[in-house]
Amino acid sequence: MISLFLIPLYVSLTTTGLMNRPIQLVSSQPYTAFEFQNSHTIDRIAESISGYGRANAAWTLGTINARAAAPFIELGLSAVAIGGFSGNDPIFDLESFKIMVHRDKMRYFLMPDRVHMQNLMGMNQESILTYIRNNWDDISWEWGLPQGFAYANSDL
């Protein structure tokens, strides 16, 4: 019985606390989508979306993966990850994406960072991302982001 308590006690006393610290992503890119996801920027984006009156659409905001969508969902905005949890799942092809956008009136999309873009080359998401870049309005500057990170559907 004593050994059951001694081992956890020893580990808790000798650990450096690294297990309790959040993991920090380090990127060689100058700016990535994950780096702009701090609470101040997320709040500013959420306020902008709510100010335009599209926060109650079936899918207000699209992202490439669940990690990018999660903070907005936590704030009460409807968001969809077109690549599923990891960003690599072929949930939509271009035509089904267009149908979903038209039917559900999705207004905004946040682009993935360069690292994730390289991992997605040749997959269904690349055709969707190219379509968004070519047909939606780049509103990155309105949200305080570098060019090419945030888009608004100009058809709505």
Q: Kindly state the number of beta strands.
A: 5
CATH topology label of the domain at 57-156: Rossmann fold
Q: Which strand order do you get reading across the main beta sheet?
A: 2-1-3-5-4
For the record, what CATH class of the domain at 57-156 applies?
Alpha Beta
Task: Furnish the topology, listing elements before pairings.
Layout: H1 2-14, H2 39-51, E1 61-63, H3 66-74, E2 79-81, H4 94-104, E3 108-110, H5 114-120, H6 124-135, E4 137-138, E5 150-152
Parallel strand pairs: 1-2, 1-3
Antiparallel strand pairs: 3-5, 4-5
Write a structural description:
The chain has 156 residues and is α/β, with parallel strands linked by helices. Helices cover 42% and strands 9% of the residues. The chain has a domain at 57-156: Rossmann fold, CATH 3.40.50. Strand 1, helix 3 and strand 2 form a beta-alpha-beta unit. The longest helix is centred in the N-terminal third of the chain and has 13 residues, at 2-14. It is elongated.
